[in-house]
Write a structure and sequence with these properties.
Distance between the termini: 46 Å
Number of strands: 7
Shape: globular
Strand content: 5-15%
């Protein structure tokens, strides 16, 4: 049965999404007017998107963020978090621009189409923060990634309940590297029931599961490292990471 709380949360998400569509049609990045055929981003800004090219480099700067930490197969970020392109994440996180999150997620999915991925796992929000925002932006990005990957890997699936955020933490935005690590210590849990089901499923297949851990932005890697370490401890799995943006 759908609870009143879930209905209210869903209505809040759609209200934000509709509001983002109904406001003045301008580019999220440069605030210039959009042409009738353009959505969210003007053609010029889209063509000038500062691509990270992390998917094309064996040992990219994003990969090196995790060197000496938890073992990560590959780190892929769609674009560099700089200049006017910071507005993309702001629109997704705080303006309810779900359509943009899905679009960029699909672009990210195409960038990692050659990777072997079984399950897509979003970095979770604390329930309190998710209720306030109405959605988890990483889950929306996962939906976009999944839509792209399913074109060549129909069995790929998103698992939203494998990771849980047990401790409410303040935003990482204004924190330095050390404070970011402290902020996420013991902040996450693994849903052991879900983990057990995944272990059994892939044991029956005789395969080591390959997980794609997804977040909106990679900065110090503190949050992603905490989540990846937990998944490694609980599951016999390989982990890759995908984010929309990377802070160089």
């Amino acid at each position: 049965m759908i609870s009143v709380k879930n209905i209210a949360s869903g209505l809040k998400v759609w209200a934000k999404s509709i509001a983002s569509v109904m406001i003045k049609r301008e580019c999220v990045c440069c605030s210039g007017p959009l042409q009738s055929f353009e959505t969210d981003i003007c053609t010029k800004c889209l063509l000038d998107l500062p691509s990270s090219f992390t998917w094309a480099e064996e040992d990219s700067p994003a990969d090196k963020v995790f060197w000496g930490r938890v073992r990560i197969e590959k780190v892929t970020s769609l674009f560099l978090y700089q200049g006017r392109y910071r507005n993309l994440l702001y629109s997704i996180k705080y303006k309810g621009n779900i359509r943009l999150a899905l679009r960029l997620g699909k672009m990210l999915g195409r960038a990692i189409a050659s990777q072997d991925i079984d399950l897509i796992v979003p970095v979770p929000l604390h329930p309190r923060k998710k209720r306030k925002r109405g959605y988890n932006q990483s889950e929306i990005v996962c939906r976009g990634i999944e839509a792209s990957l399913k074109q060549t890997a129909p069995s790929v699936a998103t698992e939203n309940r494998l990771l849980e955020r047990k401790r409410f933490t303040r935003t990482q935005t204004q924190k330095d590297r050390i404070d970011r690590w402290k902020n996420v210590q013991n902040a996450f849990n693994v849903n052991f029931k879900k983990a057990g089901q995944i272990r059994q499923r892939f044991r029956d297949k005789g395969k080591t599961p390959s997980l794609l851990l997804v977040d909106d932005v990679l900065t110090t890697g503190a949050t992603l490292d905490a989540c990846a370490s937990l998944l490694k401890e609980t599951l016999d799995c390989r982990i890759s990471i995908a984010t929309l943006a990377y802070v160089p």
